[in-house]
Amino acid sequence: MKKLYRNMRIFTPVDGGKPLAGAEQAKISEIKKGAMLVADGLIEKIGAEEEVTKGLDRSQLCFEKDFGGACVIPGFVDPHTHLCFAKRREDEFGMRLAGLPYLEILKRGGGILSSVNAVKGATEEQLFETTKKLALSALAKGTTTIEIKSGYGLSLDLELKMLEVIRRVSFETPLDVVPTFMGAHAVPQEWKNEADRFVDEILIGDMLPKIKAQGIAEFCDVFCEEGVFSVNQSRRLLKAAKAMGFDTKIHADEVHDLGGAGLAAELATRSAEHLLAASEDNLRAMGKAGSIAVLLPATAYSLKKPYAQGRQMIDWGVPVAMATDCNPGSCFCESVPFIFGLGVMNMDLTVEEALTATTLNAAYAINRAKKLGSLEAGKQADFVVLDGETPTTLAYHAGSTSVEEVYKLGEKVA
């Protein structure tokens, strides 16, 4: 049986088989009185209502809904989160407000290492409940697909514990969840003077093959930054991960221009994330290599840092996506509508570019564009109903959410 959703004002990017870059990122299809015919969770037909319903045998329908001309967009895709954690770090937020740099907090045993200790002390069930609660909050704000990283374990047992929780979230919520192994989120205290050995013996020699054997993570990510992992260490890890069959991502040039964006281009990683300090040359190289720039404006907001050069990246031909970076330290935010507004207001993206950045390009950043990220025949019926006339409301209605309803595989889930 099929479902008919009609009388919708549909806005969606159009998938041409690759991430949208340059002027293409601003191209959005608008169907003023549109309809979707959905079968088994997939869009069978979409377009003008008169075309979708032409010759339709309504006896084949199990459900029909008139949306009264409401604005409909694809479900948001959040391609960069650290949603799996055991304890918030509100105290460190206060330290940063008082002027203490993040890397100094990290040196004092705070930051990521504080979250590692919290994960170590939590049961798997406690960790799951915390993660599930945040995932459902993201869903209510329009996110229908989400990437979640490990990285607060830094040992094989704890990383597997986190990845098992992430897998459970994918089974026990309506969300599509993409799992990323990030054992290279920080150098553990016991290895702080032997980072090379930690990379070669622990990450490459032990963790990667065992996690691959479990089939519990799709991506491998690394924090390439001063005081964390160098470009050479990151290169060794990502090349080894690729050789084992992982797809790859990289936290690049968040605080210093270490050359992480250049490494992303060199290795053609699926994406590079943060990029606040990345150079123009390396960003242009990413564009040529097809690596997606995943920008995290709420992190810049929370850290009181200059925003990434989103406007320039698009002008330079780099495909841009945006994500929440939801984590317990530098950015406690699971709201893509907030990210959308920051992208428009503080990074000078147009509304159309921001829509692509939070849907189709975000889907490409986690290798899901073949089945979601835009509203097109053959893709999942993942969509969001807004309370405004156009997606502009996501930036216009500040300090709130314009999301009224959320549908996953054609079912209302929030």
Automatic annotation (TrEMBL):
It catalyses: 4-imidazolone-5-propanoate + H2O = N-formimidoyl-L-glutamate. The gene is hutI. GO terms for cellular component: cytoplasm. Its cofactor is Zn(2+); Fe(3+). N-formimidoyl-L-glutamate binds at Y152, N327, G329. Keywords: Cytoplasm, Histidine metabolism, Hydrolase, Iron, Metal-binding, Zinc. This is Imidazolonepropionase. Belongs to the metallo-dependent hydrolases superfamily. HutI family. It comes from the Bacteria. It comes from Cloacibacillus porcorum.
